[in-house]
Specification:
Glutaredoxin; 6 helices
Amino acid sequence: MPSAATILFIEYPKCSTCKKAKKWLDEHGVAYTDRHIVEDNPTAAEIADWQARANLPVRRFFNTSGMKYRELGIKAQLDAGMTDEQARELLATDGMLVKRPIVVAGDTVLVGFREAAWAEALL
């Protein structure tokens, strides 16, 4: 289990999934450092690092249910061949584009809240 100092919890406080995830962390005694995804948006370099650690396609970092995602037609842009680098640069422009919550704990990066995956990685 990673130490408290190494667990970063990136959230949007008004997001119901983030609230559920934060409650889960607290109930399981998992200490973390909290980061507001809009006030302190992830950089393209951070997203590249997390993407590599999580071994996930960059698409998994997009908040596909968000209004901004739909307004900007990002799915069509990705489907049309947007590169990973372009996608990370776009994600870095607005925290509301980024899927949340994100937990960064050592080499583990969890995107979105799936209780079983979190329990396996963090408990």
